[in-house]
Design goal:
The chain is α+β, with helices and mostly antiparallel strands. It folds into three domains: 244 residues, Endonuclease/exonuclease/phosphatase (Deoxyribonuclease I, Chain A, 4-Layer Sandwich), CATH 3.60.10.10; 217 residues, no CATH class; 58 residues. It contains 17 helices and 20 strands. It has a six-stranded mixed beta sheet with strand order 3-4-2-1-14-13, with no helix packed on it. A six-stranded mixed beta sheet has the order 5-6-7-8-12-11, covered by helices on one side. Strand 17 and strand 18 form a beta hairpin. Helix 8 runs antiparallel to helix 9 and helix 13 crosses helix 15. The chain is elongated and about 90 Å long.
Length: 566
């Protein structure tokens, strides 16, 4: 039976540990990672801590409010193929963060939810006192448990109860019960815990014999100490915990393998010969413009399929310094770890330990070689350096549950439609009383699009100037294909450009675009917090550049507020 594997650690600050933490995260495959006392600030991006496999939610301490320089902060990272969302409205005045994971059981078919909370309770120089924070959290927990009585709750964090609570093992199970509570301010919290059948499962004590980090749940959990911590060195007052919750089946977003054309390995001599042999004038001038463009692409796709190799790929989330040998070792390590957990065979554990040691050593070597290569080529190949810097600044990982108003989407298609609805709703309709002809007449503009000359030399120059490292648009023709076939494509492209301008029509496919939602700020699960970026077909962009050069100088001072675009 599969289990939900949760990693928990009070790290006592991540500011100086980001590099090693990131690499250790890459070497492991936890479903959920909960970190307290992160000490993070806005200038440290989540991409410096987690690779693309995870969705990350943070609640950094407000140092302006607390008049502190260090301390506090919590984060939760969830594997991105799990359906998870942050419950921003569940936060209390405590440093807590809540996420909900949707789980499904096949037989019988049931959808249920697990709510995970990471929190940190402490005294602050300014702001809420410890007792006030605990009281607010208790009231909030009471409301949530009463509102969702059938759901599973897992609450973990640094409660800082210290010697105020003495714990003893329950004779009935793995949980611990409070034997003695010396601080009366804690009584209301434990009354709430008892009312809703929450049990405490962490019995691992720190170097002083205390348990500062607690794990509560209304479902049975297994809590173990683990040696291979993600953040090192490990603070002696806070043990690193591995928490397991057994469930029947995860509800994940399915990611299909895709067919990828290897354009960099294409036979472009054959491609160019095939393009030259086409009678483009007869092929493109005997039908309407949209049909001509369709024919143009059909011929390109036909030639592409003949001379460009294809391979089936599935998106990988490994760092760029991982090589094939390391990836295979990680897969074997995971296999033997799963076998040991299932059967308890010591030989499987020894194999797992050996592979774990090999993986760490090889990862260190791979990373050092990667950094050495980047540093050595910073002058000759600065792109590699800036790609590495960019990977530490941003990542594009959408939550698996998105909402727009009262509508919630959980599948890839539903989320796509939700973004489409929002972006369409923000479109500003032009003034219906103002036609393009009236606009030109009113502003005394004397220009005709059809009079723009399409120069073969200029079109060829633009075709060859495309950046071959960029991707293509909705027509799926990348720059490398166009650049390597520029002279063979010149005739059909010029023919289509001339027809488009003379007929005053833009082909439909050139009006289509790939839309990428870019996060602005706020709740990542709310589509209204994103702005769209469009990726057009490259042929359309070239035509746009030609037209822009001719008309912009004439129209620049005449454009109104309704002239806009993404």
């Amino acid at each position: 039976m599969p289990s939900l594997n949760i990693y928990y650690q009070n790290v006592r600050g991540l500011r100086t540990k980001t590099n090693n933490f990131f690499r250790n995260v890459c070497l492991n495959s936890y479903d959920v990672i909960v970190i307290t006392e992160t000490w993070l600030v806005d200038s440290i991006n989540s991409c410096e801590l987690f690779d693309g496999r995870y969705l990350v939610w943070r609640r950094d301490r407000d140092y302006t409010r607390t008049l502190q320089k260090l301390g506090g902060g919590v984060l939760i990272a969830v594997r991105k193929d799990l359906v998870a969302m942050e419950r921003y409205d569940w936060r209390s005045s405590t440093e807590d963060i809540w996420i909900t994971i949707t789980l499904k059981k096949l037989r019988p078919s049931v959808t249920y939810y697990i709510h995970i909370c990471g929190l940190y309770l402490c005294k602050e120089n300014s702001g809420s006192s410890f007792n006030t924070q605990l009281l607010n959290f208790t009231h909030n927990l009471n409301n949530l448990m009463s509102s969702y009585p059938l759901d599973v709750f897992i609450i973990m964090g640094d409660f800082n109860f210290g010697n105020d609570v003495k714990w003893c093992k329950s004779p009935d199970g793995a949980e611990l019960v409070p034997e003695e509570i010396s601080d009366s301010s804690l009584v209301e919290f434990f009354d709430c815990v008892s009312t809703y059948s929450l049990s405490q499962f962490n019995g691992i004590r720190n170097v002083n014999g205390r348990m500062l980090d607690l794990v509560f749940s209304n479902s049975t959990l297994t809590v173990e100490e683990i040696d291979n911590a993600l953040a090192v060195p490990v603070d002696v007052h806070h043990k690193t915990l591995h928490i397991q919750a057994n469930f029947i089946q995860f509800h994940t977003l399915h990611e299909n393998s895709t067919k990828k054309y290897m354009f960099n390995k294409g036979d472009y001599e054959c491609v160019n010969n095939a393009l030259i042999q086409v009678d483009w004038h007869d092929y493109l001038c005997s039908v309407a413009l949209d049909e001509a463009v369709t024919r143009f692409y059909e011929k390109l796709y036909e030639i592409r399929d003949k001379f460009i190799p294809v391979k089936s790929v599935r998106r990988q989330s490994y760092p760029p310094w991982y090589n094939t040998a390391l990836i295979k070792i990680l897969a074997e390590k995971h296999k033997y770890h799963s076998k040991y957990k299932r059967y308890g065979n010591l030989s499987d554990y020894h194999s797992f330990s050996l592979l774990k040691m090999r993986a760490e050593e090889l990862e260190q070597t791979c990373f050092n070689n990667y950094i050495d290569i980047i540093e050595a080529s910073i002058v000759s190949n600065p792109r590699s350096f800036w790609s590495y810097v960019k990977s530490k600044k941003c990542t594009f990982v959408l939550p698996n549950i998105m909402r727009y108003g009262e509508t919630v989407a959980e599948t890839g298609q539903e989320i796509t439609n939700l973004f489409a609805d929002y972006f369409h709703a923000t479109f500003q309709q032009p003034d219906s009383d103002l036609t393009s002809t009236q606009f030109l007449n009113d502003h005394d503009v004397n220009i005709s699009i059809s009079s723009i000359e399409i120069s073969s030399d200029r079109v060829l120059k633009l075709l060859k100037s495309l950046d071959i490292n960029k991707s293509g648009g909705p027509d799926l023709i990348p720059p490398i294909f166009i650049v390597k076939c520029a002279e063979s494509l010149l005739l059909p492209v010029c023919t289509l450009f001339k027809r488009s301008l003379s007929e005053g029509t833009v082909p439909n496919i050139w009006k289509s675009a790939f839309i990428t939602p870019v996060f602005k700020s706020g709740d990542k699960a709310d589509v209204s917090n994103y702005r769209p970026i469009s990726k057009l077909c490259l042929f359309a962009k070239i035509l746009e550049r030609i037209v822009h050069t001719e008309v912009y100088s004439v129209l620049a001072s005449k454009l109104g507020d309704s002239q806009h675009g993404f």
